[in-house]
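Changelog-linked ticket: flavin mononucleotide example.
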Amino acid sequence: MGLAFPSPLVLAAGLDRHGALLQHGAALGLGAVETGSHWTPGGQPAPMSRPRTSRRTAAGQSGMRPECTAAARPLPLHGLSLVKPPALDWPRAGEAIRHAIAAWHRGADYVVLNPGRGCPSAELFADLVAALAAWRERLPRPTPLALVVKLPASWVEADRRIELARRFVGAGADGLLLSAEGAIATASVRISQLADALGPSTSLMSVGGIDSVPVARARLRAGASLLHVHRAALGSERRVRSLLCELAALRPMPRSMG
Ligand SMILES: Cc1cc2nc3c(=O)[nH]c(=O)nc-3n(C[C@H](O)[C@H](O)[C@H](O)COP(=O)(O)O)c2cc1C
């Protein structure tokens, strides 16, 4: 996606909606934090007060575990995770998301477009992605805004998963976030199939059930380059710190290494 993540560990959407950990997440080894949608009740982008990602490093921050302080870590990147405002119907979703990106993109490194639960079809969502991908080229930014599409497990598990994935890449997605929620057992196989079909030019990310180093390694080995963690980051502080630091120390694996 043209981005350098400090680590493959991403704090998944919905956990830090306001981006508090954009400033402090390096202490946990985070490579990125995904902040959530903030809509007014009428479906307009709400004012979002969150710290802008700066490129200073986290050396010297207090409270870091030794394994997380061995080298100065850059701050996590900022992913903006957007879903259709609940108040609006689908024909108005594209316009609402465009307004939100225009309002919020300056502090973001990439956008994740999430079809959410009620999306009528993958085809409709691909058309929306294509329109947004063309429009984002016009954003006044020093670097292009990378575009990621979140594929729910029902699309990842569909027989036509490769056709769907190609459709989103053709629409302009730089990366795909493959959800394994409800389909944990097949997660690595699906990543591997899609990595084979799409090749290295499309970044694959994995979310759903990543709660241990062996699970994380399996997803990386299958071809994911980033690991999103949500519920495993909600345990006791000691366990969470330890797990996150271990996950942050992992690295994507060239697929030929198997
Ligand atoms: C309370 C809660 C809120 C969530 N909010 C969002 C959200 O706003 N956008 C999104 O894309 N995913 C959201 N998710 C989904 C998570 O980002 C993630 O995909 C899911 O929890 C599976 O990962 P896990 O097994 O590590 O928890 C939410 C999940 C939870 C539990």
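Closing comment: Example verified and attached. The chain has one domain: 9-41+64-257. The pocket of flavin mononucleotide is lined by residues 12-14, 36, 81, 83, 114, 150, 179, 181, 207-210, 229-232 (CB under 6 Å).
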